[in-house]
Amino acid sequence: MAIGYHVVRNTQLIVIEGLLLLSTIVRRLHVPKQEVTKHLTLAIYVMSFFSLYFMIDFIAKHHTY
Q1: What residues contact residue 12 under an 8 Å CB cut-off, 6+ apart?
Q2: Distance between CA 43 and CA 49 in Å, rounded?
Q3: What is the pLDDT of residues 11-60, one digit of tens each?
Q4: What's 30's DSSP letter?
């Protein structure tokens, strides 16, 4: 169980760092907010899908019946 917690925690930290990096890049490039919102929404959907997929995959591989 502890391994699963650390995997999820590290994944959360990576996502947060990625979003902070993205916001810094967007501010420096002066991208219009509407474009940023559109792409950020798509990125969040994709990250959510993969996070859910990997969590289910991890649980399926490590669950004992």
Answers
A1: none
A2: 10
A3: 778 878 877 887 788 778 887 878 778 887 888 888 788 878 888 888 88
A4: T
